[in-house]
Amino acid sequence: MPQTHPPDCPGCAAPDLAFAAHDHAHCAADALARAEAVTAANNSRLTPVRRRVLEILLEDHRALGAYDVLARLAADGFGNQPPVAYRALEFLVEQGLAHRIQRLNAFTACAHPGEAHAPAFLICRACHSVAEAEAAPAREALDREAGRLGFAIERTTLEALGLCPSCKAAA
Amino acid sequence: MPQTHPPDCPGCAAPDLAFAAHDHAHCAADALARAEAVTAANNSRLTPVRRRVLEILLEDHRALGAYDVLARLAADGFGNQPPVAYRALEFLVEQGLAHRIQRLNAFTACAHPGEAHAPAFLICRACHSVAEAEAAPAREALDREAGRLGFAIERTTLEALGLCPSCKAAA
DNA sequence: CTTGACCTGTTATGATATTACATACATAGA
DNA sequence: TCTATGTATGTAATATCATAACAGGTCAAG
Ligand SMILES: [Zn+2]
Ligand SMILES: [Zn+2]
Ligand SMILES: [Zn+2]
Ligand SMILES: [Zn+2]
Asked: What residue ranges are annotated as transmembrane (chains A, B) (predicted)?
C-alpha cells in the first residue's frame, strides 16, 4: 500500500535525478509506493512478478536487458522463459512505470511514476547510468521542424549518449 | 566518378525531402555521386559490395533491415552471411552515407551525404517512409536540459513516429 | 459452481547482431 | 617482378533480443 510520508521528507527534497547524490532507498521505496497507487487508479494489478521486476529495475538508475531481468526472476523462483520477463516489462511500460531505452535494448524504471511526462534519456557511456531529462523543449523544436514538412509527430524517441557529471570529472 | 550536372538541375531544385514529390532517380544518382566524392576525400573505398548496399538503400526513402539488404546482396552474387551486410552498413554509417534507425533496427541512406549534419528522423507509421529533419534546434534544447544536470551530450538519437503528409491526408 | 477475463508458465521459433578465422585482393616497397 | 602489408570479403558458429502459440491456474461476477 502507498505509505504516506511527510511532505518535507529529505529523500523527496533531494533532486530526483539519477546523477545527483540522493537517498536511493527512499527513491526506490517511493517509486514502488507510487506504482501501487498508479496501478490501483488504473484498475490494473501489480502482481508479484510485475512488482518484482519493478523492484529489480529500481535497484539502481540503470537500464537492464530483458534477459538480465529474467535471470533475476528465475533466481527468485519465477518462470525462466523470455515471455515472463517481456510481459512484465511491457506491462510496466504501458503503465508508465518503466521506459524502454532503444539504444540499449533495455529497460529502466521510471523516475517520475504517476506524473505525465515525455522523457528524454541521458545515458552515460562510462558508468551506464540513465537519467530522465525534460523532453518538452526538444519535442517542441522537433514539432516545428516536422510541421514544416507536413509531418504529424505522435511519439518521439529522444536519447542522448555522453558523460555524466562524475564520469566527466573523473576523465 | 561524380558526374557533374548543372547547378540549376530541376532534380536538385526540388526540396530534397522524402515526403515531397521529387525526381527520385536524380535524387539517388546524386547521392551515389556524392558518395564517390566523400569516400575519395576520406581515402576510403566504395567497393562493389558497399556501393551495391548504398544503391539498395537509395531505392526509396525507407529503412531496410540488415537481413533484407543481405538477401538482396546474396541475390546479386555477393556473400550471404550476416557480416557481409553488417560490415558494409557499418562502413556507410561511418562515412555518413547512411544512418541507423534505432526504433526500426534498420538502415536508411543519408539524404544529405557530404554535408555535416545531425539529423532527426521522421518515420511514417503507415507507409514506413523515413525523412531527415534538422535536429539542431532539438539538440540545443536537449543540451540545455542536460547541462542543467551536468551531463555532457556527445551523440543523440532523435526519432519521431507519426504520419507523413500523404498518409495524414489519406486518414 | 460455472463462466469469462486475465495472468503465468512452457515450448518453439524468429529476428537481430557479433566473434573468430580463413581467403582474396590491392598496393607499396625491395 | 615479387613479396610484404594492410584491408576487404567470405563463411561458420554463436550470441543476443523478441514473439507466437498454447496449456493451465486464479479469481471474481453472475
Ligand atoms: Zn534513486
Ligand atoms: Zn557516468
Ligand atoms: Zn529521393
Ligand atoms: Zn506515410
From this structure: none
Q: Do A137 and B144 touch (CB under 8 A)?
A: yes
A23 phi and psi angles, rounded to 5 deg = -80, 95
> B139 in contact with A at a CB cutoff of 8 Å?
yes
User: Going by C-beta distance under 8 Å and a sequence separation of 6 or more, which residues neighbour residue A79?
Assistant: A49, A73
Which residues does residue B152 pair with via DSSP β-bridges, in sequence order?
A163
**CATH number 1.10.10.10 is the correct assignment for the domain at A10-170:** yes
CB-based contacts of B98: which residues, under 8 Å, 6+ apart? B54, B57, B89, B92, B107, B108, B109, B110
pTM of the model: 0.91
- Where exactly are the structural domains of chain B? 10-170
Please tell me which of the candidates A131, A145, A152 has its beta carbon nearest to residue B133.
Answer: A145
Least confidently predicted of A7-21, A79-93, B154-168: A7-21
Give me the pLDDT at residue B2, please. Answer: 41
Mean pLDDT value across residues A75-99: 97
- Say which residues have a Cβ less than 8 Å from residue A88's Cβ, sequence separation at least 6: A49, A50, A52, A53, A69, A73
Rounded CA–C1' distance between B88 and D13, in angstroms: 21
| Per-residue pLDDT, A3 | 47
Listed in sequence order, the residues at least 6 apart from B73 whose beta carbon sits closer than 8 Å to its beta carbon are B49, B52, B53, B56, B79, B80, B84, B85, B88
